[in-house]
User: What shape does this take?
Amino acid sequence: MHILAIRETGGAVLGNRALGLDELEPWVFIHGNVVQRGFTPMRPARQGDRRVLPTLSWWGGGYDVVQILANERLDMRRR
Assistant: This one.
């Protein structure tokens, strides 16, 4: 989720924590034509990478898409 999705819908980032404290590593994925580890570009993507690495994607329609979908789902459960 983009940071603006949190800010624009009234949420807040409460802090941060080093990933290593929980034995986590940044996600490795393809963004455009680049392989990245978290926010750090590693190298140009190669054709075979698309078979083994996830590709970054996002929902369009504004920063409140997640909030709208969650509210719709919650409303459906109340019926």
